[in-house]
Amino acid sequence: MDTGNTTERKNRRKKRGRIINTIIGGRLFANEMLRRNAALFALIVFYSFIYVSNRYEYERELLKIEKLTKRRDKLKNNLLTLKSEFTSKSRQSELEKILNARDSELGTMSKPMYSIKK
What we know:
Blueprint: H1 2-25, H2 27-30, H3 32-36, H4 38-89, H5 92-101
């Protein structure tokens, strides 16, 4: 069994060595099949570059969208906080407190309004 495994390993190493020598030596590009399909390989490489660049651009846009969504949510929360503060400060009782604290002559009317008819 050991002799079978060792010969198998040697054959794999030789095959790997042949493939590496073929690539480094330039014989890969001399192959007839590769020369006939060079345009196809170039097109595949070109589309691969386009795919990768589009994927990168998509991820960048996705990050921008997430960032802007977080910013929008923060601004929305600030708007709600300011609205509630304004609503509470514009109540009649709050306005009266503010006017009394400033010793203003303005105040609420004790008698209802009436209209003068001609």
